[in-house]
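Sanity check record (used in CI):
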Amino acid sequence: MVFGFRRRAFETLVRAHAPDLYRFAYWLCRDRFLAEDLVQETFARAWKAWDSLRREASGKAWLFSILYREHARLYERKRLETEALDPEEVLAGVEQDMEAGISLRAALERLPGGYREPLLLQVLGGFSCAEIGRMLRLSEANVMQRVSRARKALRGLLEEEATRWKERR
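Expected output for RNA polymerase sigma factor:
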């Protein structure tokens, strides 16, 4: 009987937060299938550690923490390939990007990960700075600073592009 209650409580938690977890996973990896795998692995690890969850009220933050660590595990041993780039190709690509304009998504991608992740957790996940701090193992003040800097940098990137767009017209 206790097992049935545990399972139902876990299923309720999963149903309540699966869309938010997927959205955050997708923002982290930019790959639909990898995001789905990350969410599934998150649920598998959460089920194994279900007894360690002290308060079900903190389940959302707990799941996001697991997801964030699962994503980090992908890169622990991964060696990134590098290749020499032709400077003229790079400049041509930059010019094309400037001509096409910058979208919000592109601006978010230009933010450093240390700023982007807390901002996305706040905006997409709806977490407080204290919760984000626990998930990312940062102080609340540090999270507040990073979110503030991310918003300022994002605003600057978008204003810069808007100015360029007006000058072209």
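Residues 38 and 74 are 10 Å apart (CA to CA). If this sentence no longer matches the regenerated tokens, the check is flagged for review.
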